[in-house]
Design goal:
Elements lengths: L2 H20 L1 H26 L5 H22 L1 H10 L1 H25 L2 H16 L1
Helix pairs in contact: 1-4, 2-3, 3-5, 4-5
């Protein structure tokens, strides 16, 4: 890279940092919600594996809420995405790709939890807890 390209990259990177700083009032609460939903997913998964009644249904709901949060984050932060694309197209596509993978993963987990095999598994686990 020559000096002009470096200066342009530095300028766009500083602009990206400024946009992220300005979007903090929107981004921070979304990050906290992501953290809370992640903790809830871990807790509900543990309760489901332990055979607690109704935990699988709660896990499906929390997983769908996580997918909705990913979509909400995508909608509420278009300026951050635009600034990431301005820095480098690869960075912008990476951020969008991460969001797509997160949303699709959550949806696939929710589908997997509602399949007959997983229903039978969790029903068997629920029965084993009550037999103790």
């Amino acid at each position: 890279m020559d000096e002009g390209d470096r200066a342009m990259f530095r300028e766009r990177s500083e602009h990206f940092n400024q946009v992220r700083e300005q979007a903090r009032s929107r981004d921070f609460p979304l990050g906290v919600a992501t953290l809370l939903l992640g903790g809830a997913m871990v807790a509900m998964a543990a309760r489901s594996m332990a055979g607690r009644e109704g935990a699988r249904g709660a896990l499906v709901q929390v997983t769908l809420a996580r997918a909705a949060l990913v979509v909400l984050t995508f909608v509420l932060l278009p300026d951050v995405r635009a600034a990431a694309f301005a820095v480098a197209t690869g960075v912008g596509y990476f951020l969008v790709g991460v969001m797509v993978v997160e949303a699709v993963s959550c949806l696939l987990v929710a589908v997997a939890l509602t399949r007959q095999g997983s229903l039978a598994f969790f029903r068997a686990a629920e029965g084993s807890v009550w037999e103790r």
